[in-house]
Amino acid sequence: MFGRDPWGGPLEISNADSATDDDRSRDLDRAALMRQLDETQQSWLLAGPGDQAGKKKKKYVDLGCVVLDRKIFMWTVGTILGLGVFIGFIMMIVKLVPHKGNSCMKDGLSDSTVRRSLVGGFYDAGDAIKFNYPMAWSMTMLSWSVIEYKAKYEAIGELDHIKELIKWGTDYILKTFNSSADTIDRIVAQVGLGDTSKGSSQPNDHYCWMRPEDIDYKRPVTECHSCSDLASEMAAALAAASIVFKDSKTYSDKLVKGAKALYKFGRLQRGRYSPNGSDQAIFYNSTSYWDEFVWGGAWMYFATGNNSYLTIATAPGMAKHAGAYWFGSPNYGVFTWDDKLPGAQVLLSRLRLFLSPGYPYEEILRTFHNQTDNVMCSYLPLFNSFNFTKGGLIQLNHGGPQPLQYAVNAAFLASLYSDYLEAADTPGWYCGPNFYTTEVLRKFARSQLDYILGKNPLKMSYVVGFGNKYPKRPHHRGASIPHNGVKYGCKGGFKWRETKKANPNALVGAMVAGPDRHDGFKDVRTNYNYTEPTLAANAGLVAALISIADIPTGRYSIDKNTIFSAIPPMFPTPPPPPSAWKP
Fold it and tell me: Where are its TM segments located (predicted)?
């Protein structure tokens, strides 16, 4: 359920000092890069209230031409600086400078069963495997964030860049099946292997510790012929991206065509993409495909306006199979690359809030809306649905390792849902008999992001390059091996994995796996449960950050209408009024 190296295609690593790490991986994600924030900015974002030192301060500030109340002056300056810092940080996360050198340029071509190029896409985490299941989900998440917050990305100068990243992923997805056909019978599930449990000495992405650009071992391609979960998630990724690129009609249409073929394939050829014992099952096991049917169906409806997809997504039996009524489940409401139901329910609540399609969809849409309210209640500490660490991090994976990926997804849903409610002129929601304002959701989202950025017992930022204290030894091959002109073979790079020195290349912008349930953290390269970044986790981080960023963009934080652009009018246009009566 977890992976490795998020850097395939464009990646940037900057030289620093020294390196180390290994083992298997799990779900993480991919980030991006830019500049570090200066001390003043860091202290604004991470530090607590400033000390007053008991000194009396002047009540007014004389600016020469005008005299201002000191409190108003300080509040204004603080607000301006704060906004600048947050915008700067989001730019750092979204920025991704291409690395020097290509990597795995024979992917697909060297596999005798595929024999076509599968170059592109993103590596999963600290290794170089392309796990298409979490990769597709990551592209869906990034597209969703652009659809909702396009104006924010534009305001910070990152819209073109985030679209480039999405297109890099969707271009690759289009290569993994016959995207020119209306009907397909197979898709690529994975490129590369990571299982080392059988004692084989055959080099693979976990058996070796090499720079991505030095990889010279065989990278097998795994195809699947009945994989409803993967196909539906890939369909969701292409459908969501088609809305992002709707102004580029040719490309958008190409994405929609591919999405239709994928969703059709997933519905007809039922099965999970991760059979027992497979590489997929070891690292990114899928527990069900019903949630992908709902999630993918919703995105297909928004991309095409075809009611048949909405009928699938809102079928009562589909909701039941997807776990919509499993209120007692310990994982109910936990949005991940494996369980899309919480995200699908938020997405379909949006439809009900703004378009209210009515019969025959209303019953399930109302159910999803109510359950979204319940999920938001479960994120609040006072309901004890999930534990929180003493430092304030929600334990959506019940004290398990790598908690940050779950926290950023919850922060994104909470922040986004609060924006939906405000745009629908709804000041809050009910948890039982008690009413809570949208600001409660934003406070929860901010608390999780503040924790990740350094407001925690260790004063540790879990995003590399941000703040004064952050992980120096991420579990990542490319970051741990120096660019010293030496090519290290399969086992040659292990000396860099094992060293206790800091990585020679700073993986700026990457969020690592995170602390344990006691707020403890070990900056150890060989322990991926603490230090490995993943593609899926960092996609969630980007979405959460842009959603919570206080960037003025108009009356509403979200774009209310773009997602509905393919949907025809819900009700027939009324006929024109009769002509005036003449005696």
Answer: 72-97
